[in-house]
Amino acid sequence: MILAQITDCHIAPADHILTTRYRTSDYLADAITHIETLDPKPDAIIATGDLVESGSREEYERFRELLKHSSLPVYLMVGNHDSREGLRSVFTDHGYLPEDGYIQYAVDLGPVRMLVTDTLVDGQSDGRLCGDRLAWLESQLDGAPDIPTIIAMHHPPFVTGIRKMDSMGLDGSDGLKQLVTRFDNVERIICGHLHRPITRRFANTVVSTCPGTAHQIQLDIRDGLGLGVIMEPPAVYLHAWIEDEGLVTHTSYVGDHGTADVIYDVNGDRAV
Ligand SMILES: [Fe+2]
Ligand SMILES: [Fe+2]
């Protein structure tokens, strides 16, 4: 089982700077094409929020058009730039989306289970895992304590050192830590929001943030609240389940990086 993760697509209207300067729609199209051409092809895609820029129906329709080029099931969730109602109104055929309330659901990915969690606070950049949302997560974890589980959530539950982003962090991470500590089957907590790859130990699991499909957040861990975006190479994560081993996460860079020079052929024989 391979789960591809894309994040922070920030699809915007045609005349928006995110479209004209940062070309978020073009980059999402490239990411979809990239995933389609992988061998082996992943089993599913999780898009970990900030799917669009302002949550409008028009933006979700543009996002939906781009996703049509994927042959894989795509699971959607909300980030701080999203709107629950906007998402629901355009993806009515995505039957896993709850009809109302928080956008939280469980997905069976064969050997692995994914719990998608909603950290959106309407109108705010920071996120929250309130008592209701944590209670749902607890009930889901209690219901299948032996199945390897991925928790997907937009806001990472840790301080990254990129201070401006940390000021838009997650309220409720202590409660999450207490909860996850009770379980030994949480393979990974996968997040977005940071637009760059970051990893941290958290309780008895590992948390990672995924690079964005378009613009990245500049790496700046100095004092101060400055923040920049930079066109570092976009990437997708491939969370691969290896039997008797566990979940291994690969970074797969989108774009043209040439072809590999073969050192060993498929039989393991030296090719050069
Ligand atoms: Fe974002
Ligand atoms: Fe975000």
Report a brief summary of the structure:
With 272 residues, this protein is an alpha/beta fold. It has helices at residues 17-20, 24-36, 57-67, 84-90, 131-143, 163-166, 173-181; strands spanning 2-6, 44-47, 74-76, 105-109, 112-116, 127-128, 149-152, 170-171, 186-191, 198-202, 205-209, 216-217, 229-230, 235-242, 246-253. The protein has one domain (2-253): Metallo-dependent phosphatases (Purple Acid Phosphatase, chain A, domain 2, 4-Layer Sandwich).
Report the CATH topology name: Purple Acid Phosphatase, chain A, domain 2
CATH architecture: 4-Layer Sandwich
Strand element count = 15
Helix content percent band: 10-25%
Kindly give the count of domains: 1
Uncertain runs are none
What is the CATH C-level name? Alpha Beta
Structural class category: alpha/beta
Q: Give the name of the CATH superfamily.
A: Metallo-dependent phosphatases
How would you state the average pLDDT, rounded?
A: 98
How do the strands of the widest beta sheet line up side by side? 4-5-7-9-11-10
Number of helices: 7
Determine the N-to-C terminus distance: 33 Å
**Overall morphology:** globular
